[in-house]
Amino acid sequence: MKQGKILIVSGPSGVGKGTVLKELMKRHPNMRFSVSATTRSPRPGEIDGVHYRFLDKASFEDMIARDALLEYASYADNYYGTPAEPVQQALEQGIHVILEIEVQGALQVMSRRKDAISIFIAPPSYGELRRRLYGRGDTAPEVAEKRLKIAIEECSHAQEYSYTVVNDNVDEAVQEMEAILLAESCRSEFRPIHLEEEL
Ligand code: 5GP
Predict the structure, then answer these.
(1) Band of the pLDDT at 147, cuts 50, 70, 90?
(2) pTM of the predicted structure, to 2 decimals
């Protein structure tokens, strides 16, 4: 069976990554989100083991010590990381795994897994990002302000990703993601041509 691919997706908080990825997954059932571990508190509606594995700091640091994470980073005063084993299992079953992670972690995966596809989702403008971050309703203003500053810094890393998708319109952003996946599947290295002569 063909191995699945790792799809690294980053973009500032509030850029609409979640919406774009959910729509993409609706159209491609052989894709799965990696469930990250984090030390941040759950937001309303978030379920442990579904949206994140919510851990205390000691348990997270234990995973670091056991080298059980494909990558991890400290973001807005909390740890976030990708448990390695579930990713590997899914890839072996031919499932594509989406890592929706921030820049520091993305760079770690890019250097460890050269076969990973990296996509940066960018906002159409600063004003629009600010509006989306503040309008979300589940984030305190001081947290939103902090995230806006981080977002500006994060956008300066877009060039380190193989692809950038601007999320102005969800449908168009999804189409661009699909085009990237299609092009990646057509890479010559995955398409050996066998032209044996007929007997
Ligand atoms: P949030 O707290 O809004 O869910 O996520 C904050 C940031 O952490 C987002 O940029 C998100 O993509 C990133 N993030 C989520 N999971 C992981 C992870 O496993 N590793 C890393 N490096 N970043 C993550």
Answers:
(1) confident
(2) 0.90
